[in-house]
Write a structure and sequence with these properties.
312 residues, mainly alpha, Alpha-Beta Plaits, 8 helices, 2 domains
């Protein structure tokens, strides 16, 4: 009888818990979004309206992230042999791209309002801003756990933490307007929100693209992992090495290992030692190692799929 992989069981439990927290965050954000949009319209506040627009992207982001989490919990099949773990990466790509577009729209509207700053109802701006700050802080806290290891969760968390800071800025703008009547401060805060959105979106966008391109994870130095593999007794060489990510926390490695002409049982021991090293030191649980007693291409560490001889 086959026993479930402990790593897979852990991922399932984490995903199930994250899905519940994401659903609660989605409901809270959606309810508040409606109220903030109405308040921003009545107060004629660009800061509130832009924050409502950002919250709208949060609702979409949380909804997509929730759906992606449900997909990742589905088992692998003959058509999706890696399962649905890339769904979260695709959602992070969609979310970050939409944020870039939203920020461009905010910059355009802020430019128009800088030339003719409209009157802003400071008391409504402060009241709604304080409520928004509390709601965003709660929802960000709900999504935070696990966001350091899951790019899908992190994209949602970054959305919400951006809202925490931007609503705090809206409150500050309201206080300044209340005492000074400097209505342009509201527009200045909206610019700050736009810059914050763009900065966070670009970071997530860059990381999702790297994963989709199957780049080596940024925290792994290939020379170090090769050196460690060569340090395992019985390993004479390493080539045709690939290291990539299915999602932020699910990494893969495949390589050809050169050994002496040894019995299969001895080869299994070498393979187990290399697997243990890679799992313990680099956190890679999924490895595919092909043992060879004669190196097919001793000068090429990485397989060149283009058929050229140059190895960058």
């Amino acid at each position: 009888m086959n026993r479930p992989n402990p790593t897979h069981l852990h991922l399932y439990d984490v995903t199930k818990d994250a899905t519940k927290r994401m659903a609660v965050s989605f409901a809270l954000t959606f309810v508040f979004l409606v109220g903030e949009a109405i308040a921003g319209y009545l107060a004629n506040s660009l800061a509130l309206l832009t924050d409502a627009a950002h919250n709208f992207t949060d609702v979409l982001a949380l909804g997509l992230s929730w759906y992606a989490l449900r997909l990742t919990s589905l088992p692998a099949n003959s058509q999706k042999t890696y399962g649905y773990h890339r769904a979260g990466i695709l959602v992070a790509l969609i979310n970050s791209t939409s944020l870039v577009l939203i920020s461009i729209g905010i910059f355009y509207e802020a430019y128009r309002r800088f030339t003719h700053p409209p009157a802003v109802k400071a008391d409504l701006l402060i009241g709604v801003g304080l409520l928004a700050f509390a709601i965003n802080l709660i929802t960000a806290w709900l999504v935070r756990r696990g966001s350091d290891k899951d790019l899908n969760l992190r994209s949602a968390y970054v959305h919400l933490m951006g809202d925490v800071l931007s609503t705090l800025g809206a409150v500050i703008a309201g206080v300044v307007i209340l005492f000074t009547q400097w209505f342009w401060v509201d527009t200045l805060v909206s610019l700050f929100i736009g810059i914050l959105i763009l900065w966070n979106a670009s970071r997530i966008l860059r990381e999702t693209i790297q994963i989709l391109l199957e780049s080596t994870p940024a925290d792994i130095v290939v020379d170090d992992i090769v050196s460690d593999m060569l340090g395992v007794e019985g390993v004479l060489g390493v080539h045709d090495l690939h290291i990539w990510s299915i999602s932020k926390d699910l990494r893969m490695l495949s390589a050809h290992i050169v050994t002496e002409d040894i019995p299969l049982s001895t080869g299994n021991q070498i393979q187990a030692a290399v697997n243990h090293l890679i799992r313990r030191k680099y956190g890679i649980d999924h490895t595919t190692l092909q043992l060879e007693c004669a190196e097919c291409d001793p000068v090429t560490l990485h397989c060149d799929l283009n058929g050229t001889e140059k190895n960058p």
